[in-house]
Amino acid sequence: MTWSDYDSTSCSIARTAQVLGDRWAVLVVRDLFNGVRRFDALHDHLGIARDVLTKRLALLVGEGLAERQPVAVPGERTRHEYVLTPAGRDLRVVMVALMDWGDHHRAGQDGPPMRISHRDCGAPIHAHLVCDEGHEIEPTTRTELAPLPGARLRSA
Amino acid sequence: MTWSDYDSTSCSIARTAQVLGDRWAVLVVRDLFNGVRRFDALHDHLGIARDVLTKRLALLVGEGLAERQPVAVPGERTRHEYVLTPAGRDLRVVMVALMDWGDHHRAGQDGPPMRISHRDCGAPIHAHLVCDEGHEIEPTTRTELAPLPGARLRSA
DNA sequence: ACCTCTGAGTTTGGATTGCAGACCCAGATG
DNA sequence: CATCTGGGTCTGCAATCCAAACTCAGAGGT
Questions:
Q1: Which residues contact B26 (CB under 8 A, 6 or more apart)?
Q2: B53 touches strand D (CB under 7 A)
Q3: Nucleotides of C under 7 A from a protein CB
Q4: Are B8 and B155 in contact (CB under 8 A)?
Q5: What is the C-alpha to C-alpha distance for residues B75 and A141, in angstroms, rounded to an integer?
Q6: Which of A10, B29, B44, B94 has the lowest CB atom count within 10 Å?
Q7: How do the domains of chain A map onto residue ranges?
Q8: B3-87 sits in which CATH class?
Q9: Which fold has domain A3-88?
Q10: pLDDT tens for each residue of B115-151
Q11: CA–CA dist A38, A53 (Å, integer)
């Protein structure tokens, strides 16, 4: 039983990619994290086609990453906002990991464009790999992949 | 100057998504991590169309995430393998973050399908957010985003 | 010399998806 | 009653995806 004997699509990475495996989905989630919540604001900032944005938002809502909430300001007509659910907010680790990689490997002349920091202490935040014994996992550290009960073999 | 005043595409997440923001690119990288390195093996395991695989591999090579290496087994004709470069291997944090999310939010009846662990100590590995002062960043911890010299304002 | 097999793609034609821009609808506002 | 605006839908065309067929070169068999 080697890795390739297991079903590619029942892997957790594949399942997450099912939701997030699209340029726009990633960027929409990023903007939701950063407080861009209204349809037109997303359309404007991302430069995404309106119908595609509609579909991506529907996907995120359907997958439980975001919710469409009516926002009632008195004296104004009801607006709508898309807000991340707890499941959506759990993607922060992914976002920071993507950002770290871009900072290291795709920064321009002037270095990285943004810094995310811990509000309480001001220190920059990064994504790390750590094992449950507390050892830091470096890029060269050897790891092992083992199947669990949830694993599925490929059919035929 | 708020987030939406900055150019969406010059963000590090956008730049990483430029490379990895496609379902197949993510899965190809995942399989390269797991030792699936030959064209036909990738085609077979992923179920990806052959021409799309050709394009994705060309993308990964062009972006410096992978290299196409001839593998000469004596007495056999030369084969080729795609191998992750150091830049490609740096995506491990992203992969584990994606896997963690899938494990938590998309596991089936029987729980997660795979476990990645530290070979030296056997303990499972997870992606964490940590600030440079060493504080663990929980999903609810407040963070702050600040522009750096590399930031670009939107043109018009 | 000829045939076959295999790895690694390339080509082809039809089905999807993406895009920009035009259009639509309902609730304020003048 | 006409207009404006948020939040979409519709349309026509371009790019991408897909499965399956085709290509090509090097090894082996006969």
A1: A13, A17, A21, B20, B98
A2: no
A3: 7-12, 18-22, 27-29
A4: no
A5: 34
A6: B44
A7: 3-88
A8: mainly alpha
A9: Arc Repressor Mutant, subunit A (1.10.10)
A10: 999 999 999 999 999 999 999 999 999 999 999 999 9
A11: 11
